[in-house]
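Protein modeling request. Please complete all fields; requests missing the sequence field cannot be processed.
Requester role: graduate student
Desired output: 3D structure, token encoding
Chains: 1
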Amino acid sequence: MNKELEEFNFFDPEVMKFPFEFYEKARKEAPVYQLPGTDIFFVTRYEDVKMVARKAKLYSSEFDTMMAPQEPDPRIEEVLKEGYPGVATMLTRDAPAHNRYRALVNPAFSDKRVRDLKPHMERIVDELIADLPESGRVDFMHEFCVPLPVWVIADALGVPREDLPKFKHWSDQAVARFSGVTTPDEDVEIAKSIVEFQHYFAAKIDERRENPGDDVVSRLVHAEVEGELPLDTPEMLSIIQQILVAGNETTTATLAAGMVHLIQRPDVLAELREDRSKVTQFVEEILRLETPSAGMWRVALEDSEIQGVKIPKGSKLLIRWASANRDEERFEDPDEIDLKRENTMDHMAFGYGIHICLGHFLSRQELNVAFNKLLDALKSWKLADGHELTYVPNLLLRGLGELELEIEKA
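Delivered output (410 residues):
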């Protein structure tokens, strides 16, 4: 490493795309690092990240108002008037309000509920693989990695397949909203997509009130927990948007990353082909190594201190799951895939504490189904000639933008 820590500008899109040199240097030299000229503290070591995520009474998740611009764009305000009021729900609420939302929503994504979806997932994967050419160049990102989680979560929400392009657009716009690299004009377009999304799903909510089905929207509409108020429409819209992104972008990114790692690590591929029971460990190692949900915000509610660094009340903290999951103090040879690693499940790719990702059972099962079936269906794959791996800059998420492969079916 030749660069000094202060030479890194984390808001530079290139650093967002390739942050691991910055993470490693920060873990070694300044594990709690105040970004120059800001009140933002990066937390990069495993134990510190875990501690901040656990101490919700000291480090709050209610960061939505903190992230709002000091001078709102009147164009955006005018657009949002046409929709429903924004409501902070699961991701951006602390206990006890957070507990109410999870109690009402968790049953729709329980381990048993997800296991019941496995045959349906397998049919979707089979359908996507069947549509791939027998051999030759394929846009694997958009022919497989994108549609799989989109189809699964859309079917779970009861969205018809013909509306999937809208569904994907809304998800992309929601991700762009938190990227940290959008322009004011792009923010206006994002606001328009939010309103469009709201009206679409508000209509679905009204339909499910009259005619409930076996889908997530119906379960949200009719969710009941003793002593808790049912969800209203703005709350359900907020939750559905979070489900949309969490059930989509992160699984797509992990699928693409896994295929690339198997190209780069033929020994791991051979090991998986020889012993398919190791696919589950492989999935967890890719989640640890790539961590698509790279970080999350917290707000200091009181003056505090971490690793000797004073954190003033009101400061913003960026806890970096992606750095924690490569912490040398926690994971031996952290940059390698180790199918015998005993503590892989200690990773925090789905977060930690009360805000652990609602859809972690769903994502894990999709990934296991997908990689098992791809190992059956594909004799070989490699990066297509001339294709370069490019990542999409985003402050909180990380993943490939494109993935073109040369494949040969078995």
